């Protein structure tokens, strides 16, 4: 019969890989996509939803076109394990699915115990909103219900984590909401990192638009020494207790659990061969996106989408003999600081034996004029339309 590809995870990496393998092999490869959710809510632009710049249904996507137009067999279930000798994926609902090549793009899970006092049972009291959908809705509702003059605390994650500017774009969007509806409210960031992505741009913007509202406590002042109490709604930062109204805990991260279950991780992440995105531990398995340890690319939707196209080409090459070109990757991360005040950072990359290596990069500058910032924001809207069409058809 036809060669079989199974893709686990219908997000930025997995949906793109499934679509490109099905589309470009023109029916020569059987593609099965395993994803528990019927709706995928993008994390990208979820901050804009929190800020009131997007409606929730504008960041919701379904798998209908992948099934109907590309003939992908979409299975709504969890993959619970991989038998690498038999080359089968076990499903939570029972049974297993055979593969010739397996693609894993499960995104992230959280490192247990990384924020003292917090675990997944506390995610309703203190949401992470670092996976899409209901968590994002919950965080937005909590921000809108804050009492006048209340306090929002973010516990920021250590490196590496998905979307390096994501926490700081979120802070900008929370400040945008509070600045209009609750201007005496306060925002505190407890941060274990010395520095963060696009820091000069964010700090300039926060000063300009939200002067005085945002305080970041970095590691020098104990920002990495945090304990939370979800029942009392307090955050202890280096021995000082803060009474909070909303606490957004973004824990340390690791590869989605299935990578561990399949024995494909080293430490928290899954190492891959840059030219093909094959696991360094199993040549029949390709791993994409946030779950990987690949080198210089940030963990982003743009990166996952870019890596997926490289993997799709390699998978088709291996299974149908189609031509494989040298891998090229790219990424851009846009962030919105305030209405029409968009900034970006990006780069191109190539595959070396050792890692995905940065070739060339660019970043927005402080002091740019309003027209350029507006154009940068508008570019991000075009990017969103483009990547979601590239993923879901
Ligand atoms: P995901 O897109 O998370 O997809 C993983 C999928 O796998 C999920 O649908 C999940 O249900 C499924 N899955 C997991 N385990 C299993 C299993 N065992 N069986 C079956 N299915 C499974 N990136 C950008 O490029 N630009 C941005 O502006 C941007 N903004 C962001 C803002 C925020 C607040 C956050 C949190 C992230 C942002 N990102 C952004 C990052 C981006 O969302 C991720 O990097 C990207 O989604 C990674 O793609 P992925 O395929 O690795 O994982």
From TrEMBL:
<dbReference type="GO" id="GO:0050660">
    <property type="term" value="F:flavin adenine dinucleotide binding"/>
</dbReference>
<dbReference type="GO" id="GO:0016491">
    <property type="term" value="F:oxidoreductase activity"/>
</dbReference>
<dbReference type="InterPro" id="IPR036188">
    <property type="entry name" value="FAD/NAD-bd_sf"/>
</dbReference>
<keyword id="KW-0285">Flavoprotein</keyword>
<dbReference type="Pfam" id="PF07992">
    <property type="entry name" value="Pyr_redox_2"/>
</dbReference>
<feature type="domain" description="FAD/NAD(P)-binding">
    <location>
        <begin position="4"/>
        <end position="107"/>
    </location>
</feature>
<dbReference type="Pfam" id="PF21706">
    <property type="entry name" value="FCSD_central"/>
</dbReference>
<dbReference type="InterPro" id="IPR006311">
    <property type="entry name" value="TAT_signal"/>
</dbReference>
<feature type="domain" description="Flavocytochrome c sulphide dehydrogenase flavin-binding">
    <location>
        <begin position="327"/>
        <end position="392"/>
    </location>
</feature>
<dbReference type="Pfam" id="PF09242">
    <property type="entry name" value="FCSD-flav_bind"/>
</dbReference>
<dbReference type="InterPro" id="IPR016156">
    <property type="entry name" value="FAD/NAD-linked_Rdtase_dimer_sf"/>
</dbReference>
<dbReference type="InterPro" id="IPR049386">
    <property type="entry name" value="FCSD_central"/>
</dbReference>
<keyword id="KW-0274">FAD</keyword>
<dbReference type="InterPro" id="IPR052541">
    <property type="entry name" value="SQRD"/>
</dbReference>
<feature type="domain" description="Sulfide dehydrogenase [flavocytochrome c] flavoprotein chain central">
    <location>
        <begin position="136"/>
        <end position="251"/>
    </location>
</feature>
<dbReference type="InterPro" id="IPR015323">
    <property type="entry name" value="FlavoCytC_S_DH_flav-bd"/>
</dbReference>
<dbReference type="InterPro" id="IPR023753">
    <property type="entry name" value="FAD/NAD-binding_dom"/>
</dbReference>
<dbReference type="InterPro" id="IPR037092">
    <property type="entry name" value="FlavoCytC_S_DH_flav-bd_sf"/>
</dbReference>
<protein>
    <submittedName>
        <fullName>Cytochrome-dependent sulfide dehydrogenase (Flavoprotein)</fullName>
    </submittedName>
</protein>
């Amino acid at each position: 019969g036809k060669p079989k590809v199974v893709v686990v995870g219908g997000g930025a990496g997995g949906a793109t890989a499934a679509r490109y393998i099905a589309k470009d092999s023109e029916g020569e490869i059987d593609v099965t996509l395993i994803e528990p959710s019927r709706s995928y809510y993008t994390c990208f632009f979820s901050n804009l939803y929190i800020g009131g710049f997007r409606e929730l249904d504008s960041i919701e996507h379904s798998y209908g076109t992948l099934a109907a137009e590309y003939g992908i067999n979409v299975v709504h279930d969890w993959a619970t394990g991989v038998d690498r000798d038999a080359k089968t994926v076990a499903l939570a609902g029972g049974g297993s699915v055979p593969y010739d090549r397996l693609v894993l793009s499960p995104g992230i899970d959280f490192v247990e115990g990384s924020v003292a006092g917090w675990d997944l049972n506390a995610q309703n009291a203190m949401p992470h909103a670092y996976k899409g959908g209901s968590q994002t809705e919950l965080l937005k509702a909590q921000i809108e219900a804050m009492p006048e003059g209340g306090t929002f605390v973010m516990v920021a994650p250590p490196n590496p984590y998905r979307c390096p500017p994501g926490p700081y774009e979120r802070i900008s969007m929370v400040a945008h909401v509070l600045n209009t509806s609750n201007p005496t409210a306060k925002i505190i960031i407890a941060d274990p990192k010395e520095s963060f992505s696009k820091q000069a741009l964010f700090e300039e913007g926060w000063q300009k638009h939200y002067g005085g509202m945002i305080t970041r406590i970095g590691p020098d002042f104990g920002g990495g020494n945090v304990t939370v109490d979800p029942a009392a709604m307090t955050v202890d930062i280096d021995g000082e207790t803060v009474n909070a109204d909303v606490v957004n805990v973004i824990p340390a991260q690791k590869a989605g659990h299935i990578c561990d279950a399949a024995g494909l991780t080293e430490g928290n992440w899954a190492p891959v061969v840059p030219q093909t995105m094959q696991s360094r531990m199993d040549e029949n398995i390709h791993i994409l996106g946030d779950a990987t340890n690949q080198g210089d690319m940030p963990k982003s939707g743009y990166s996952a989408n870019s890596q997926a196209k490289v993997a799709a080409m390699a998978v088709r090459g291996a299974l149908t003999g189609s031509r494989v070109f040298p891998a090229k990757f790219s990424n851009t991360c846009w962030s919105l600081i305030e209405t029409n005040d968009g900034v970006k950072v990006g780069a191109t990359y190539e595959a070396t034996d050792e890692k995905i290596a940065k070739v060339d990069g660019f970043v927005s500058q402080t002091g740019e004029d309003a027209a350029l910032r507006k154009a940068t924001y508008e570019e991000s809207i075009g990017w969103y339309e483009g990547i979601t069409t590239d993923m879901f058809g």
